[in-house]
């Protein structure tokens, strides 16, 4: 009998590149996505913590098109947009 080359798949980490780039300790910024249940099947989703360098209106436009829903960017005196 001959030895067969058996390759055992190793664990794949899809976030390995992101973790390597984000090596700064304590510099993590989180994006909070909250889903509030309203009446019945209705819900309200809020997103908070996006960087200011992103265009909120373009992100909103793409999300509305992708998920066939409505949305708005709200200006808050405490939290900003």
Can you characterise this structure?
The chain is of the alpha+beta class. It has a domain at 30-75: 2-Layer Sandwich (Translation Initiation Factor Eif1), CATH 3.30.780. The chain is 22% helix and 15% strand. It contains two helices and two strands, in the order αββα. The chain has helices at residues 16-21, 56-67; strands spanning 32-37, 43-48. It has a two-stranded antiparallel ribbon. A hairpin with a 5-residue loop joins strand 1 and strand 2 (43-48). The N and C termini lie far apart (69 Å). Residues 31-81 form the SUI1 domain. Keywords: Protein biosynthesis, Translation regulation. GO terms for molecular function: translation initiation factor activity.
Q: What's the arrangement of secondary structure elements?
A:
Layout: H1 16-21, E1 32-37, E2 43-48, H2 56-67
Antiparallel strand pairs: 1-2
InterPro entries: SUI1 (IPR001950), SUI1_dom_sf (IPR036877), SUI1_euk (IPR005874)
Domain SUI1: 31-81
Protein name: SUI1 domain-containing protein
Number of β-strand runs: 2
Please state the second-level CATH architecture of the domain at 30-75: 2-Layer Sandwich
The overall average pLDDT, rounded, is: 79
The CATH class assignment of the domain at 30-75 is Alpha Beta
Q: Which fold name fills CATH's third level, the topology of the domain at 30-75?
A: Translation Initiation Factor Eif1
CATH superfamily of the domain at 30-75: SUI1-like domain
The whole-angstrom Rg is 21 Å
Family: Belongs to the SUI1 family.
Domain SUI1: 31-81
GO molecular function: translation initiation factor activity
Pfam family, one: SUI1
